[in-house]
Here is the input.
Amino acid sequence: MAPKKSKLKKMLSPPTPPPADTNMDDDQLMDDLLAQLDSKDDSVKQESATVLNEMQIDKVADRLEAAPKKDPKARYKARQARKAAALAETYAPTDSAADERLEREAKEEEEQIKKTCDELGLMIHEITPDGHCLFSAVADQLGLLGILPSSQATYATCRKAAADYIHSHPDDFLPFLPSDLGEDAAGATEPGLMNRDQFERYCATMRDTAIWGGEPEVVALSRAYNVPIHVVQGGKPPVVVHDPTDGKVSDSKRTVYISYHRRLYGLGEHYNSLRPKTLVNSLKSVFQ
Here is the structure.
């Protein structure tokens, strides 16, 4: 394992980009590490998980995801790194120091989000972590803005709007949706995109189940309702802005504000709604 550990450190060291002909070696190394995490030998899985956690693979994924969206190779590597981080967290041996680090990171994230909210005059309105959180958060905002009547400001309405928009604009979303048989599948080593049948299933699943929604759905909701969606997060930038880009003129006075939490709940990533910080809303948050 020692040679792989030193190779991994070299691969993930921030500064000098490697020569073009080493890309294949880096890809093979990531595949090897993922394979080891899939090993039947618990000691191999734990050792690989420990190395990945030591190298803070999550931060590597953050850096890769910051690459231009037109760079599919970087986005593929980011998804591979994120997948490795999730598996590493699952298989890593119990470590009180690691647990303390996670608690500290969660607290730091919470403080960063609260600071940004204070600067924007916003406060967190808690959304139930049930798989529908993104859609419930956006629905809450659309109801506050009067874009949806209260009776329709539900996760079901927003799920349908997002799924229908994605379904009717396949060319805008297919380049960012990995295939079931691509890099997210067990043992996969190549970046694959969805075919038409998989795309149809994706849209139906997003519309009809409690599957978690992410960036493609945020983009779809922004365009479907023609409103900017500002996502407050603990990382950089502190606010990620999604503006409609389908040629319509959006009303800048009507902006959806939601927060993205990577470590708020042990179950995974989560979205909350961000309401204006008024006396009424402050009192509501106390008695909820």
Remarks:
- The radius of gyration is 20 Å.
- Residues 126 and 272 are 6 Å apart (CA to CA).
- Strands lie at 122-125, 229-233, 239-242, 256-265, 268-276.
